[in-house]
Amino acid sequence: MEEKDKNKIENPDTVSAETPHKSNREIFMDGYMTRYPDDDIEDEEVIFGRINDDMNGYNDLKKENEQIKQLFIDNPQYAEMFADAREGRPFLTSFIERFGEEAISAALKDPEKAKEIGEANSKFIERAAMDKKRDEETPKNVQSSLDAISTYQQENGISDEEITELWNKAIDIVVNGINGNIPVEFIDILYKSKNHDNDVKNAAEEAEIRGRNAQIEEKLAEPSPYNNMPPTLNGSSSANIQEPEQGKRKKRTGYNPFTGKEYEY
Fold first, then answer.
1. 10 Å Cβ neighbour count for 107?
2. 179 SS3 class
3. Residue 1 confidence (pLDDT)
4. 201: part of which helix (H) or strand (E)?
5. Rounded CA gap, 170 and 49, in Å?
6. Ramachandran region, residue 100 (left: φ > 0; alpha: ψ -120 to 50; beta: rest)
7. 250: which DSSP letter?
8. I want to staple 181 with a disulfide (CB 3.0 to 4.6 A). Which of 176, 196, 198, 216 is the partner?
9. How confident is the model at residue 128, as a pLDDT?
10. How far apart, in whole angstroms, are the C-alpha atoms of residue 62 and residue 59?
11. Termini Cα distance of the chain
């Protein structure tokens, strides 16, 4: 009885029947959701955008691998030193083993090579100083960013889940930018943001012009003060009294650029 149970467990046909076979689509979606758990898998644009980004990254990596491969073919010593580095051997020891100690001494005695070594050492010192400064500033910058984002979250009533998603997307954009991959979605956001600022500016200018036009039209529509004067001594109506001509000045015409109309004064 026990032997039959054992055979039943080890029978490949039985195991295959109990374990349903997954389609390539299911395998892909399982891997996709493991890597991008926050993505909306119902949105094809999101999925294909991710695929494009991954393909671009893969092509860039493949190109770099080909360049490294050719470098090792042309310089076998570099390949050997790389293998030593993977095993944890000190670089200088690996270098001397393949090029000899005399290579360093000869380079220092050669004026041109000595100059190149001096320039390289200066770059090393500069880079080390920059790395040290970055290591000191990065924690402060991160904390400052987190404080600012926390304030923004509270002011705009954003949930923890939403702000975490936005933070992760921002990190993705930064990392992709460092690697030379700028998503089109990011350019689209910047473009729309630029147009939004211009639209707000234009709306403010149009509102200001409409306000000026209204003031000018109100001023032009005001009745003459002579229309409200009482009758004269001879009984004639004040409405028939003409405004003084101030030295018999002829009426002039002006143009209002805001209303597009001419007016007399």
1. 14
2. coil
3. 46
4. helix 184-221
5. 16
6. left
7. P
8. 176
9. 92
10. 5
11. 118
DSSP type of residue 107:
H
Half-sphere exposure of 142 (CA within 13 A, CB side): 7
Helix, strand, or coil (residue 35): helix
Sequential pLDDT tens for the chain (265 residues): 444 444 444 555 554 455 578 888 888 888 888 888 888 888 888 888 888 988 888 898 899 999 999 999 998 988 999 899 989 999 889 989 888 888 888 888 888 888 888 899 999 999 999 999 989 998 998 899 889 989 998 999 988 889 888 888 888 888 888 877 777 777 887 787 777 666 666 666 676 677 666 666 666 666 555 555 555 444 444 445 454 544 455 666 665 554 556 767 6
CA–CA dist 1, 8 (Å, integer): 11
- Residue 215, pLDDT score: 67
Q: How far is CA 135 from the centre of its chain?
A: 23
d(CA 92, CA 79): 15
What is the distance between the alpha carbons of residues 43 and 31, in angstroms, rounded to a whole number?
17
Structure tokens at 130: 């920059």
Farthest-apart Cα atoms in the chain, separation: 139
Q: What tokens does 226 get?
A: 């002579």
Look over the chain and give the mean of its residue pLDDT values, rounded to a whole number.
77
Spatial separation of the C-alpha atoms in residues 54 and 41, rounded to whole Å: 16
Helix (H) or strand (E) holding 263: strand 261-264
What angle is formed at CA 60 by the lines to CA 56 and CA 61, rounded to 5 degrees? Answer: 115
> Which tokens belong to 213?
């036009």
Rounded Cα distance between 45 and 30, Å, is 18
Residue whose token pair is 């000595």: 114
The whole-angstrom separation of Cα 91 and Cα 130 is 23
